[in-house]
C-alpha cells in the first residue's frame, strides 16, 4: 500500500551513493552540463537536485527496501542502471586483478609458470566483452563509477525496469517525465509545480524542468536570471537548433578574425601569430629611485625552459627584461626564487631594500581608519599615466610560427586538445620595437572606438560600487570602472566580438548566446588572471571566489580564446513550462507545490559583487528582456549573519510557506554543520511557520567513498520541511525525553534500512540524524514556553551565549553517540566509559572501516565533548589520521593528571606496552593489578577493551596493531583466570 502523507525522502535517502555520484559530477569540471553556460559560485550537482525532487514525489510503502530499489532504478544507480551507464573499457590489468582462477586459466597467457594480464591468442571479441561485463558486475560501487557515464547523461531507463517501477508505484509511465506528471497528479492533483527563489546558476530549475515539472525560478540578480533562462531555453533545444547557434558563434569569430588580421596587431614581421602577451606592473623604488618591474618570479615557462633576467640600465635607472630560452635547471630554479615581489612587498634588486606595497601606495592611517593613496582612474581612462605608482609594461610574447589550414572548429574537434607543437614551433621573445609599435596601434584603435562602443554597450564602462570584495580594486590599483580591469588589447578584442555579434544576431537566443560568450571571454581574458608557468597557460579570473589584483598577468589572443567564445552547449532536448523572474524573494506571489532553495546562508561569497564583473558586459540584457533591470540589487541581497540577516530570512521563508500548497514541501540546502548555525536556522524556519520532517547530508564538495584523496568533507545538508499546523505549546524540560526517543527511533530506522554488504550510512549520518531528530521535535510545536524566538533571532552572531536550541542539539548529539555503540563492544560497558575512552574506541572503529579523515575525528570529539584529543593521534595528515598504538604511546602521559591519562583504557594500553617490551604478559597483568583503581571491579571493562583490541588483528590494513592484538589475546586469558 502506498502512503502519500509522507515522501520517500522523509523516511530514507541513499546518502552514500548520492555522495559518490555528486562527487563524480563535480569531478567532471568543465564537462558538467551547466558550467559551460557561465561562471557561478556553488552550483549544486544535478544528480543531487534530481534525487531530491524524486525523493519528494515518491510515496512510501510498507516495504521500505523495495521503495529504495525503485528509487535507485529511477536514478540509474541500481545494478541494471550502472550496467547501462558503462561507457568505458576496463583496462586489461584491472580485469586480470578481478578475474577468478578459472577465468585466468581460460583467457590469459601464462609465462614462467604464472598467469599474466595478456589475452591468449585467438580469444574472441565476444569473450572479452563478456569478461568486461562480469568483472564490472562484481566491482564495488566506487570502482564502477570510474567506467560509467553520469546519471544525467543517461537517455532512458530500459523497458523491463519500467514494468517493475510502474507495478510498484501503480503508474503507467514510459519516461521519467510521464512518471513525474503522474506522481504529481496523485499527490497534488496536477503536474507538480516546483519553485526556486535563489536560482543562481540554474541547477534546480533546470533539473526540475528536465524531469517534466512546471517550474518557477527567480533571483534578485540579473546575471543569475541570464544563466537560469539560458539553461531552460537554450539547453532544451534539439541538435539542429544547437547547430544553428554554434554556426552563429563561428560566424562572429570569423568576422572578428578577419578584422584583427587586417589590423595586423597579432602577427609579427615573420608571420608568426601571437598566442599570449605577458605584462607586469612596474614601480619606482623609493630608496634608490630605480624603476623596477613587479614580478613574483622570473620563470616564464617551465615546460619550454624560458626565464626572464633583470638587466640594469644604469643610465635610465631602470631594468630591462631579457627573455632567455633553453634555460638550465639551475636558471629555472633561480628564476623561481628571484622575484621582485615577496609577501606583498617590493624587493629592489638594485639596493636590496624591502618596501611594503602599502608604503608604495602611500596609504595612511588616521584615528584608526586608513586613507588609501592611489590615484583613482577617470572614466575615460583604460591605461595608466606616466606618473602613476603602478604602470603596466609588456615583457614577453609567446609566438607560434605557423597554424594549420584547417578551421579552428576542426582543430578543437580533435579527441584530445592539440598542443602548441601541433600548430608550429613555439617562440618566447622579448618585445621588439615593432612589437611595441603594434601595442601603440592597439591603443590608437581602441581610442577611436572607445566612446562609440561605450555608448552602444560594447564596453563595461559602469562604475565599480565599493563593497567588501570590490573596494580592493580602487585600493590596490586605483580602478573605479569595470573596463579598467581589462588591458586595452582585451577591451579591443572583446568589444569587437560584441560589435560583430550585434550585427549578426537575428533572434533573442543568439543575442543571449553572445552575452554568455562575452562573459566567458571576460572570465578568461582580464588583468586578474594568473599566468601558470608550470602548465604554460593562463587561469581564469575567478580561480577562486574573489577579484584578485595581480602584479603580472597574461593577455590571450584570438588563437587562444576560440574555445572561450565557441563554448560547448550540452543540450538535453526537453520541453519546458517555466516562468523566470527577477524578483526579491520576499515579494513572490506565485504558489508552488514544492520549493527547493539553496540560500546564501552565513555565506562568505559576495555573489552580488562578483556578478557585477559580468553584468558590466551584459548591457544587451535590457533589449532582450525589457522587464529586467541591470542592477545587482546589493541593498536587497540577503547575506551575512545577525539580526538583519535573520529577519530577512524569516520574511523570505514565511512568504514561501504562504505560497506553498497545503500538502506541499520544501527543501533547504546549506553547507554548515556548526551547532550555532543549525540553531539559528531552526529559529528562522520555526518563525516562518515551517517544521522539519527529515535531514540528510550529501558530500558534494570533496572526498567521497575513496574517489578522491583530499582532506575535509564538505557536505550539503538537505532539510525537508512542511507547513507548521500544530497549535500545541510545550515546555523545554518536557522535550528532552521526546528528543531522546526520536534520536533512537531515527537511528534504528536507518540501521534497519542499511545494506550490510554495501553500507549507506556512516557515523556522520547518524550524527546528522540527531540534529534532525531534535529539530523535528522542536518544530513540531507551535510554541515552546521557555523559548523567545524573536529574542533569539535578534541576538548578534558572536554573543558566546549558548541558546536553548543549541543545548538541545548538543544533548541529542550525545544521545546519538551513547546509542551508537561500536560494533563488537558491550553496550552496557560502553555507557560507563568516560568521554575520552569512547573517543578512542570509536576512533579505532573508524580505522576498522578504513576511515582516516581528520574531519571524522573532529566530529566525534565534538560529539563526545573531548577538547584535547590531538595528543591521542598517531598521524594527523590528511586522509592518514589515526590513533596512537600502545607502542607509540610508550609510557608517555601515563602519570599526567588528565582524564585519559588516568583512565582504565590508558592503563590497558600501558599493560600491552609492558608486555610487548618485555615479551612477558605477566608484567602487563601486574601493571593492571597495581595501577588500575578498583581493579577487581574493573575487570569486565578491562576484558572488553582487550577483546576489542584483539579484533584489530583481523584487519590487513591495521597491521600496526598486530603485536598489540597478539598480546591482548594472551592478556585476556590471564585477566579472565586471575584469582585473589
TrEMBL record:
InterPro entries named in the record: Antiphage_assoc (IPR049953), DUF1156 (IPR009537), SAM-dependent_MTases_sf (IPR029063)
Ranges annotated as spanning the membrane: none
Pfam family membership, one: DUF1156
Domain DUF1156: 12-73
Taxonomic superkingdom: Bacteria
Name listed for the protein in its UniProt record: Anti-phage-associated DUF1156 domain-containing protein
Record organism: Virgibacillus byunsanensis
Amino acid at each position: 500500500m502506498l502512503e502519500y502523507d509522507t515522501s520517500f525522502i522523509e523516511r530514507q535517502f541513499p546518502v552514500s551513493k548520492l555522495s559518490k555520484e555528486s562527487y563524480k559530477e563535480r569531478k567532471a569540471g568543465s564537462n558538467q552540463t551547466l558550467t559551460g553556460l557561465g561562471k557561478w559560485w556553488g552550483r549544486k550537482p544535478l544528480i543531487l537536485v534530481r534525487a531530491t525532487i524524486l525523493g519528494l514525489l515518491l510515496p512510501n510503502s510498507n516495504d521500505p527496501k523495495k521503495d529504495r530499489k525503485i528509487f535507485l532504478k529511477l536514478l540509474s544507480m541500481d545494478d541494471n542502471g550502472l550496467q547501462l551507464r558503462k561507457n568505458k573499457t576496463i583496462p586489461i590489468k584491472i580485469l586480470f586483478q578481478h578475474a577468478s582462477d578459472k577465468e585466468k586459466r581460460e583467457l590469459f597467457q601464462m609465462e614462467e609458470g604464472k598467469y599474466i594480464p595478456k589475452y591468449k591468442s585467438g580469444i574472441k571479441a565476444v569473450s572479452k566483452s563478456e569478461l568486461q561485463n562480469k568483472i564490472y558486475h562484481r566491482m564495488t560501487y566506487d570502482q564502477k563509477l570510474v567506467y560509467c557515464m553520469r546519471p544525467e547523461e543517461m537517455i532512458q531507463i530500459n523497458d523491463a525496469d519500467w514494468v517493475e517501477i510502474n507495478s510498484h508505484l501503480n503508474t503507467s509511465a514510459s519516461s521519467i517525465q510521464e512518471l513525474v506528471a503522474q506522481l504529481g497528479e496523485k499527490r497534488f492533483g496536477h503536474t507538480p509545480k516546483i519553485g526556486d527563489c535563489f536560482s543562481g546558476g540554474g541547477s534546480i530549475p533546470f533539473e526540475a524542468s528536465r524531469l517534466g515539472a512546471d517550474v518557477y525560478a527567480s533571483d534578485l540578480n540579473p546575471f543569475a536570471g541570464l544563466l537560469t533562462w539560458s539553461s531552460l531555453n537554450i539547453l532544451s533545444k534539439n541538435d539542429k537548433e544547437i547547430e544553428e547557434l554554434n554556426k552563429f558563434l563561428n560566424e562572429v569569430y570569423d568576422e572578428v578574425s578577419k578584422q584583427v588580421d587586417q589590423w595586423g596587431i597579432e602577427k609579427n614581421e615573420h608571420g608568426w601569430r601571437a598566442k599570449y602577451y605577458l605584462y607586469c606592473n612596474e614601480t619606482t623604488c623609493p630608496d634608490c629611485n630605480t624603476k623596477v618591474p613587479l614580478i613574483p618570479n622570473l620563470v616564464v615557462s617551465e615546460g619550454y625552459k624560458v626565464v626572464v633576467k633583470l638587466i640594469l640600465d644604469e643610465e635610465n635607472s631602470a631594468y630591462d627584461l631579457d627573455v632567455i630560452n633553453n634555460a638550465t635547471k639551475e636558471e629555472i630554479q633561480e628564476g623561481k626564487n628571484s622575484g621582485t615581489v615577496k609577501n606583498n612587498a617590493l624587493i629592489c634588486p638594485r639596493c636590496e631594500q624591502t618596501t611594503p606595497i602599502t608604503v608604495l601606495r602611500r596609504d595612511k592611517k588616521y584615528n584608526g581608519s586608513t586613507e588609501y593613496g592611489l590615484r583613482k582612474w577617470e572614466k575615460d581612462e583604460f591605461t595608466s599615466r606616466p606618473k602613476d605608482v603602478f604602470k603596466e609594461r609588456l615583457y614577453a610574447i609567446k609566438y607560434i610560427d605557423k597554424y594549420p589550414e584547417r578551421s579552428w572548429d576542426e582543430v578543437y574537434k580533435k579527441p584530445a586538445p592539440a598542443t602548441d607543437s601541433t600548430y608550429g614551433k613555439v617562440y618566447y621573445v622579448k618585445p621588439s620595437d615593432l612589437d611595441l609599435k603594434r601595442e601603440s596601434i592597439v591603443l590608437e584603435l581602441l581610442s577611436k572606438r572607445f566612446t562609440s562602443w561605450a555608448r552602444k554597450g560594447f564596453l563595461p564602462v559602469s562604475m565599480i560600487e565599493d563593497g567588501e570584495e570590490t573596494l580592493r580594486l580602487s585600493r590596490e590599483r586605483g580602478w573605479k570602472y569595470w573596463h579598467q580591469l581589462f588591458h586595452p588589447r582585451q577591451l579591443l578584442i572583446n568589444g569587437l566580438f560584441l560589435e560583430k555579434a550585434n550585427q549578426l544576431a537575428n533572434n533573442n537566443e543568439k543575442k543571449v548566446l553572445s552575452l554568455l560568450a562575452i562573459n566567458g571571454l571576460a572570465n578568461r581574458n582580464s588583468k586578474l588572471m594568473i599566468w601558470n608557468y608550470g602548465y604554460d597557460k593562463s587561469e581564469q579570473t575567478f580561480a577562486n571566489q574573489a577579484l584578485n589584483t595581480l602584479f603580472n598577468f597574461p593577455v590571450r589572443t584570438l588563437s587562444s580564446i576560440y574555445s572561450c567564445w565557441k563554448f560547448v552547449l550540452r543540450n538535453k532536448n526537453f520541453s519546458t513550462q517555466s516562468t523566470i523572474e527577477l524578483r526579491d524573494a520576499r515579494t513572490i506571489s506565485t504558489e508552488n507545490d514544492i520549493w527547493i532553495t539553496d540560500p546564501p546562508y552565513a555565506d562568505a561569497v559576495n555573489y552580488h559583487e562578483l556578478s557585477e564583473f559580468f553584468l558590466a558586459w551584459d548591457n544587451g540584457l535590457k533589449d532582450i528582456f525589457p522587464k529586467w533591470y541591470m542592477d545587482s540589487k546589493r541593498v536587497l541581497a540577503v547575506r551575512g549573519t545577525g539580526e538583519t540577516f535573520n529577519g530577512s530570512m524569516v520574511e523570505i521563508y514565511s512568504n514561501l510557506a504562504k505560497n506553498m500548497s497545503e500538502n506541499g514541501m520544501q527543501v533547504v540546502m546549506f553547507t554548515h554543520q556548526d551547532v550555532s548555525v543549525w540553531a539559528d536556522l531552526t529559529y528562522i524556519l520555526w518563525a516562518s511557520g515551517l517544521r522539519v520532517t527529515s535531514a540528510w547530508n550529501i558530500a558534494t564538495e570533496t572526498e567521497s567513498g575513496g574517489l578522491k584523496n583530499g582532506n575535509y568533507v564538505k557536505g550539503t545538508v538537505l532539510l525537508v520541511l512542511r507547513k507548521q499546523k500544530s497549535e500545541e505549546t510545550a515546555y523545554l524540560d518536557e522535550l528532552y525525553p521526546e528528543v531522546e526517543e526520536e534520536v533512537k527511533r531515527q537511528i534504528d530506522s536507518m540501521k534497519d534500512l542499511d545494506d550490510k554488504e554495501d553500507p549507506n550510512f556512516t557515523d556522520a549520518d547518524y550524527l546528522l540524524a540527531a540534529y534532525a531528530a531534535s529539530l523535528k521535535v522542536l518544530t513540531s510545536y507551535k510554541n515552546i514556553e521557555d523559548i523567545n524566538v524573536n529574542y533569539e533571532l535578534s541576538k548578534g552572531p558572536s554573543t558566546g551565549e549558548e541558546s536553548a536550541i543549541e543545548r538541545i542539539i548538543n544533548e541529542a548529539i550525545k544521545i546519538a553517540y551513547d546509542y551508537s555503540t561500536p560494533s563488537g563492544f558491550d553496550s552496557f560497558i560502553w555507557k560507563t566509559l568516560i568521554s575520552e575512552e569512547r573517543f578512542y574506541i570509536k576512533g579505532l572503529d573508524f580505522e576498522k572501516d578504513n576511515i582516516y579523515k581528520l574531519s571524522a575525528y573532529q566530529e566525534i570529539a565534538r560529539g563526545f565533548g573531548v577538547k584535547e584529543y590531538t595528543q591521542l593521534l598517531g598521524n594527523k595528515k590528511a586522509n592518514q589520521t589515526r590513533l596512537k598504538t600502545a607502542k607509540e604511546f610508550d609510557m608517555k602521559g601515563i602519570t599526567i593528571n588528565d582524564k585519559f591519562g588516568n583512565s582504565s583504557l590508558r592503563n590497558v594500553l600501558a599493560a600491552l606496552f609492558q608486555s610487548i617490551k618485555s615479551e612477558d604478559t605477566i608484567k602487563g597483568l601486574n601493571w593492571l593489578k597495581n595501577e588500575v583503581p578498583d581493579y577487581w571491579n574493573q575487570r569486565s571493562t578491562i576484558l572488553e577493551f582487550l577483546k576489542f583490541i584483539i579484533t584489530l588483528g583481523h584487519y590487513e590494513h591495521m597491521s600496526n596493531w598486530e603485536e598489540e592484538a597478539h598480546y591482548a589475546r594472551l592478556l585476556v586469558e590471564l585477566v579472565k583466570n586471575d584469582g585473589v
